[in-house]
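#lab-general

N.A. 3:47 PM
ok so I finally got the sequence cleaned up, no stray characters, all 401 residues accounted for. can someone with queue access submit it? mine expired

B.Y. 3:52 PM
send it over

N.A. 3:53 PM
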Amino acid sequence: MSAITIENDLVHYEALGRGRPVILVHGWLGSWRYWVPTMQHLSGKYRAYAIDLWGFGDSGKDANKYAIKEQVSMLFKFFEGMGIRKAVLVGHSLGAAVCLNFARQYPEYTHRLLLISPPLVDMGGWGDELPANMQPRPTAPPKPADPVPNPPSPTNAPSTPASSAPNTPNTPSPQSTPNAQNAPSSPSLPKAPAAPTTPTAATPPPSSVQYSHTSETLAANPFRAAQQPPAAPVLPLSIATVPNTPAEPPSAPIAQGFAAILAALSAGKPPALLVKHAARDMPDLEMLRAEVTKADEAAFTRTAQSLSAQNLALELKRLMTPTLLLHGEDDTLLPPPSEMLIQRINRGKQNGYFLPLIEPTVGHFPMLEITAKFNRLLLDFLEATDLTNVQFKDQWKRTVR
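B.Y. 4:20 PM
back already:
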């Protein structure tokens, strides 16, 4: 057992191999231990580190350190303590959220990023990411009950020097006030300061914003299409398209956001959750159940609560680190994101900087359910010199060109 002291507490980790560093970060239902097959596969060319996050495995159990911000800080201090200046980060579920936040905060420390089953939900806030012709279209303002009559033409308005104006209340009559935009300028009158802009009914809150709707899907798409609300946009990508296909209802986490994730993580004790969301024939399931038992239950809810106010999908869109996204199509804890959300993330990114993959018949633990296949994928991703031309093995479906 290896450990490093961070903030007067122990962070447990294990390391294997020699070479460039790869940091492996577990998810809610696990610890460092389920990375052992991956570490063994990488050890011939890489130095693989697997750590336990605060509240999990054999690391410290201080509840004040469970928020994502504290987990990212711990990861950064691990880099510093181990003398690591740049590494590939591989994160699973909760670990994927931690790694994504780390890459956004410390891009100079992150070489590449593999995110496995990250908790991506569409939380809105995409208006500033859209091109000008697809900006949010506000709803029509309500018609006023009593329209204000038009002011008289500024050409007929009398010109009164400011010094001769009588003392009157500061509430001018609409009939006697010229239109400020059309009033002629006069050297005897000082320019009035611009009135401050105040919100009106024409600017609705984000929840009432409407978008123009287009239909476009990914070519050779392995995703399960999701039925989206009619007011939401399907953004085009710089990739080939195919005609529309029938859509399925959205999964619960996509429809309800982090409320569904919080409910799923609170639905039972950690060992029971592991059994519920892991494949029955997954190797070393009993050993993993013993590892999950070590977790502090508060770490489940507090990490999820700290993520509930963060739009991870938008953070992923803004990330400039080369990133591979991997989901199991049959993941019952964190189902794959909708096709529309994938399109939103990918729009505007450089080719090769975001590679989304969804593997059929795989659940929440692809690194254990299809170990050999996963390890080949990871090694290909690590060793590709040009990510715009990454060619995975035939078994893996590529969704971007």
